[in-house]
User: Fold Phenylalanine--tRNA ligase beta subunit from Bdellovibrio svalbardensis.
Amino acid sequence: MKISLKWLQDYVDVNEFFSKPEVLGEALTRAGLEVEEITNLAKDFNHVVIGHILEKDKHPNADKLSLCRVSTGDVVHQIVCGAQNHKAGDRVIVALPGAVLPGNFAIKKSAVRGVDSAGMLCSLKELGLAKESDGIEILPADAPIGKPYAEYGGYDDITFELKVTPNRADCLSHFGLAREVACLLGKDLKAPAAEPKVSSQSSKSAIALDVKAFDLCPRYTGRFIKGVKVGPSPAWLKNRIESVGLNSINNIVDVTNYVMMELGQPLHAFDASFIAGKKIVVDRATAGEAFITLDGTEIKLTGEELTIRDANHPVCLAGVVGGKNSGVSDATVDLFLESAYFVPASARKTSRAHGITTDSAYRFSRGVDPDGALRGLNRATALILEVAGGEAYGDHHDFYPNPVKKSPVTISVQTVSDRLGYEALEDKFVDFMKRLGCEIAKSGSSYSVLPPTFRFDLEQDMDLVEEYARLNGYEHIPETLPVFIKPPSNHDKGFMLNRSTSELVRAEGYQQAVNFAFVGSKAEKAFLGASAALKSAGFAISEKEIRIMNPLNEEMDVMRSSLSFGLFRNLNTNFHYGNMQGRLFEIGSTFFVKEDGSYGESSHMGFALWGKSDNLWNKSLDYPIVFELKATVEALMKSLNISSYTWVTPPKTEVPAFMHQGQYAQLMVEGKKVGFIGTLHPVLLDENKIRVPAAIGEFDLDQLYKGQPRPYRISSISKFPVVERDFAFQMDKSLKVGDVLKDIRKAAAGLLVNVEVFDLYEGDKMEAGKKSVAIRLWLQDKNATLQENQINEVSTKVLESLKKNFDLSVR
Assistant:
């Protein structure tokens, strides 16, 4: 939010900060109102002053140029000018040497067609104050010669760009900030006048009011104003609103914006001639009805929006935007002026639902002062009468059946001292509370503090402790080490397991992804397909989704049921941003609905891989990328000391829609399915224009962590040698080598240390449908040196078992 220092000066004395605005900026930032930028507008008009044309002659060497002698007080300047709309005696704007005009146009002493010129007579366009100009700007005859134009034109201002936190909606105005500055600096506060002159005519008779949705509109005030003259705003009003970044529209609209920026109370002015039935109705919208905003945008209402209506249709989305069918125009003569308090949630939902962001919605969404509605109405009425004339009717509307009441907070000064770690002063505490606008009464050693209605954030004693710390200065809080009486508590078991798992996976070359726990229901359903396939992989997943009551948008309206969708979006985004190869993992929660209707949560781990490394050493290797993921998962199993696991290939009906049916497997640990890995479906990759292979995996960590930590069996290192034996077997290509290795481990139990595949041949010298697999066994007796007969006995057992179970024999 932008704040004008000159405007602020109207309510609190900040004159000392015009020469040192940074000091005020630092004070506000320390108090929690961060100042992001300070701009001195007068710097744009350095060396630009008011001049008086003493003489105007023709240029001796150019017919279209004039030669002027211009006084700026003590000095007379010779200036060449190309415009023709000026004459001797005029007061003009002069840019002297040293000035830098918009576009980085520096004014210097120069020769124009052989004649010296020491400045420039300026138009408003050349000063950046207008889009078009007919010639140089001619000022009134009483404009003071030599005075800086920034000061004369009202541009000698300093603006602050503030970052106001959502809980401090009371500071979203100049008077609200003045209240804060007065409290911080111990200065007096001066409130703006808000007592308009009204006639004996009745506003209630001119425009009736019916508030039906009083749960969303606790207070509504309004007044009828007759015979206004809509036109351009006077200079002071135009300069004020433009100084804080608003555009001047006309005098009526500018007044409503002025009061919003002054008091923080948004208002809306209706053209009374367009209010059908001469009646204002505050009620919810009718589902499906159309509404056209002031800028001409047509939207369909859902029925949940709060609207301001006439007898036939909506004329305003309450607290958000006005309607084109009742906006103020040059032809407007009679007004109905509205100033209300709408429940913040109502304005916020309407604004988000239709993507409409306005200054009014910004304030109503955070909360305006319900007690400020009538003050805003009166202030705006007085200003409209001043700038547009007319007759303000009396007997105004003020619907406020249940006034908003704050609850008193009980607190002792000792509580403040105990929480801040230093002695709080009672006099200072009382002074701070009064300056904050609180009513305070002492009872024994405690105080009863009643916060004002504009401070929504003051609800309990700790809020008041924070206010004392903020106003007194956080720098007074002493730095002390806590007393360590007890040893620190143990880390959460799940946290420690997740950390060790993350470290292992990062060591495998993966980077961790962190996604939102809420996704778009339509997009997730389209990606995951039927939930039965994920249930088959061992996941707790429900057909019914968990919807968010107040979603940010339709892409974040449900809690996620799987990590795979989010990781696929990460993959897709990275690839299309030029990352042709990547490895991601995520540890997070998924959510489901239990049979009894309650909500459940599971901890999952997901993987996403795409593209292959350009390493020259493995260019000749051609393997599906899913095997790289398989190796990572098996390394994870080893780190968790899980040996009883296997990969199973389910029926095609149990393969998720986003997976390649021929390259998909489920992981079974100790007889229970805990997740899956697989290559992404080629059609899915093609639809998303992903031109590299990609794989996805997801596992239920709650199941994997059961029984953790699993104890490791530690044994001493044998001093006896290991014997290696190699075997090559010819087998069908369809036979799983993993099953063969499992059979070898069983047959050679006792002396077998390790077994693994070290060669695979599927060349043209093999029979069709066959492959040759070379397997190496490591044998060892931990108590003695292996004898030849022991080695032969084990080898025989292995070969007999493979012959019996798989009909395999050594090549």
